[in-house]
Amino acid sequence: MTTEIREEIPQDHEAVYRIHELAFKQAGEAKLVDALRKSSAFIPALSLVAISDRAISGHILFTKIRIKNSSSIHESLALAPVSVHPDLQHRGIGTALIRAGLQKAGNLGYGSVIVLGHEHYYPKFGFLPAAGWQIKAPFEVPSNAFMALELKPGGLSGVNGTVEYAREFEMV
Fold first, then answer.
1. Is 49 helix (H, G, I), strand (E, B) or coil?
2. pLDDT for the residue numbered 172
3. How far apart are CA 107 and CA 121, in angstroms?
């Protein structure tokens, strides 16, 4: 099975909704993606789909966030959500989506990415606990699951504070 990664197009929306719904066993993330597409945090070039055997097999979304403290605001990205059709999981599709998305984000000039995810999965992409930069989540979360990645050397140099997600994230 070969997998192609490309930017999402409007004709993909229904299939992307279904992938998130199946992967998460509920519609919260699917509704979040729909809402984020309409927000100022949405970056069309960073909404990517995986195509396997001519069908959408996965989706990843990166949106704009801010890391804010009392004296500065730094723009970054949130990686959320990422989903692969349950029948096709553990075949490298999620890894391909994440690698392609991180590369594209870096090529677009973004310096960092924040993710709330599995502490044993995301480090293979270079993510480290965000606490190492004194970056905090806006809600209670285990510190080892809240991670950051510099897309370029020094991408988080001098950055610290609390992450501000797009308000659409509050619905999940």
1. strand
2. 74
3. 23
